[in-house]
Structures are given as C-alpha cells and as structure tokens.
Amino acid sequence: MPLQKKLKKPSKITVLRIVLAILIILNMTAIFLFSEQTGAQSNHTSSRVTTFVVKLFVWDFEELTPTEQAELIHAFHPPIRKLAHMAEFGLLGVLIFAFLLTWKTHPVRYYAESLAAVFLYACSDEWHQSLTDARGPQFSDVLIDLSGAILGCSCVLLFLLLAQAKQKGRLPIRMKTTHYRIQSAAVPSALRVAVIADLHGENYETPYRILQAERPDLILIPGDLMEDAQLTDPNVSGYELLRLCAALAPTYYSLGNHEIGCYHSHNPLRHPTPKPLAGEIRKRIAKTGAVLLDNRFIRHNGLCICGVRSGINGEKNEPDTALLKRFSNQSGFKLLLCHHPEYFVPFVKKLPIDLTVSGHAHGGQWRIFGRGVYAPGQGLFPKYTAGVLENRCVISRGLGNHTRIPRIFNPREVVIIDLEPKKK
Q: Which residue, 176, 190, 382, 412, could crosslink 378 as a Cys pair with Cβ 3.0–4.6 Å?
C-alpha cells in the first residue's frame, strides 16, 4: 500500500469558483479603498479619470486652450463619475452572478440574489463614505450603483435565457444567402461556387435547400463541418450532407480546428487535444463522393483546388507554408480552402493564389455597426469575420453555432460566389 494517498486535483468548477471568489474580493476591496479617500482625494481621482476619457473621445482636445479644456472636463466630470460608479458595481454584480451560476438551479433566483448582495454592499459603501472627511451618504448613489448591477446582470441573464431557448429549439434560426461576384483573368469560364462552413454537426436541411435552389457548379467546405467526436459515427448529419452535396455538384472538403480536435486553445482551463485523422474516417468521407483535401491540391476542369488544414495543433498557429508555396506555383486558377481567415494576410496574400475561402470566425458572433465583436485567433473587434478581402479572400459567417453564446445581428449564411472571366 502507498504510504500516502494521492491528493485529488481540484475540479475545473472548483477552480472557477475560487477564481471568481478572488475577483469578487478584489472588486470589493477596490471599492472600499476608493471610499476610504477624502472628498478632495476622491475628486482628484475622478478628475484624472474624466481627463483620460475626454482626451480619448475628443480628438482635438490638445488643440483647445487651457480654459476650454478645463470647461470641458468640468462639464463631463459628473456623468463620468456616476458611470464609473455604475461600472464598479456592475462588475461586482456580474461576478457575484457568475459565481452563483456555478451551482445548477434557475438563473432568475441567482439574478435576484446578486442584485440584493450589490444593494447591501452599496448601502454599506455609502455608510463607509460618511466616516471620511467631506463625504456623506446619499441614497441616490445607492440607486446609481444598483442600476449598474441591474444592467450587467440583466445582460448575463438575457444571454443565458437565449442560450437555453436555443438548446431547446425554441428560437427560430435565421439563415441568409450571400452573393458575391468576382472577376479574374485566370478563370477559364463562368462558374458558380457555393461555400458552406462551420456547420458543427447541426441540422443541414435549410442550407441544403439553398444549395438546391442556387444550383452551384462547385461546393466548397472549408472546415468545421463536424466535431471530431462525430467523425467516428457514420450516421451523423455531416456525412449525410456530404453525400447530398456530392450528388448535387463536385464537393471539396478541408479540415478545420474542430475536426482535428483543436477547439480548446482559447480556453485557459483546457488544452488542445489534436487527433490524427484515422484511415477509416478518410475512407468514410471518400464513400460520400466528396473529396477530402487535407494538405493537398487537385485539378478540376482548369482549376487547381487546394485544402490546407488548421494549424492550431502545431508549435505555431500557422498553415503548412511549404504546401502553400508549391500550390502557388501551379498553373491555372488557384482556389484555396483555408479554415482560418487570419492566415490570409501573413501567409496567403503575398502568394499568387487567386481566391481563398474561409470560415472559423462565425461573423464575430455579435455584429455591431457591421463589425464583429470577437473571433478566436483574432480577439476583440477582429478585422476578418465576413465579406471579401481585396477581391481574393471570401469569409463565410458560417452555418452553425457550437457555443452557448447566441448570435446577435449575425445570421448564418450560405455564400455563393459567381466567378467570371475578366478580359485581359
């Protein structure tokens, strides 16, 4: 028998609770220390914040006279000070709400408990301020603090309810068809190309009906058609869609990060688990009639079509650059399936590759003023989430939504590209 039992590693949910508890304590400590300041110290701190914000949003601030600068700061100081209080207590409310949600029960109850906790702490904060010099308690400040928590927690609750409704199939799925027209002197003849990306093993009926209506000459699938676990099941929807697509038009399929098991790289609590694609899976894909282009290229009716797999499982997150170089030296119109749009500028743009089709970014998940909010591999406010880059790279918003975070102002899409020969 071993002299001592091995200590059990804490579960991921325990680690998450500890991290959230520490963040809550740090947030409350910061609020306490701000309230510890005297009236003059507090005004000085908030004035510095106001000056920073005004400089950030007033582009010609430095060109104003000192008197104009002082008047501007004075005018914006009260609302920015209140917004800062709302942000402090809004963050506190969200952290408490997230901490409570690590236990399974109805989120509305935890929503109310989080707001109650913030209200009590806001009251204690006002009492604490009354003990300092030249500062007094105001119930209106408590309400302002509470409004920040209501706003933050309401956003979290809304996303949770939408995610639950999506899982239960209660939300209608919006899907659109996006048409692009691209001209190139290298195109041998007019060609209609359909791009279906990032289905993630979800229902394929709507995109397939769109394909039937559009009657493409070529169907391209640049990755994340299925999850890696689904590849071992011959009855999943991904294989059926491959069969249907191959019967409709020549279909070419390349691998995204999900097919090769690399979908945890942006999660600090998990690690990528890349898996080699088994020979049995390759044979199963081939039986559908679709052509798997896994780091290789092929000729098709005057075109040269290449598929490069996701590079997340490598030492560096990048594609096979030697393959891209060999492919770019081929003759004819060169068409590349590349799952990651962020690969285009550093690795593909400099090569004479005529057209690249990508997915992966899911349109940035939420779209505000025509821009995505977040994309894996690109972070916040990414550049490459949808549309056409330099007439050479088409990015699909994708067909699926494997995450619980709902899409906002960002419908799923089937992309149709009409390639036309351009006179030299």
A: 382
Q: Is the predicted pLDDT of residue 14 greater than 80, yes or no? A: yes
User: Is there a domain that residue 1 lies in?
Assistant: no
d(CA 173, CA 161): 16
3-state secondary structure of 314: coil
Q: What is the DSSP string of 358-391?
A: E-SSGGGSBEETTEESEETTTEES-S-SSEEETT
Instruction: Report how far residue 219's alpha carbon sits from residue 293's, in angstroms, rounded to the nearest whole number.
Output: 13
Q: Are residues 147 and 31 in the same domain?
A: yes
CA–CA distances in Å: residue 264 to residues 134, 260, 273: 52, 11, 8
Q: What is the spatial distance between Cα 85 and Cα 87, in angstroms, rounded to a whole number?
A: 5
Report the C-alpha gap between 381 and 375 in whole angstroms.
Answer: 8
Which residue matches tokens 């679709």? Answer: 290
In a domain, 2, yes or no: no
| Three-state DSSP class for residue 82 | helix
Determine the pLDDT at residue 71. Answer: 85
Under 8 Å CB-to-CB from 24, ≥6 apart: which residues?
92, 95, 96, 99
DSSP labels for 320-337? Answer: -HHHHHHHHTSSSEEEEE
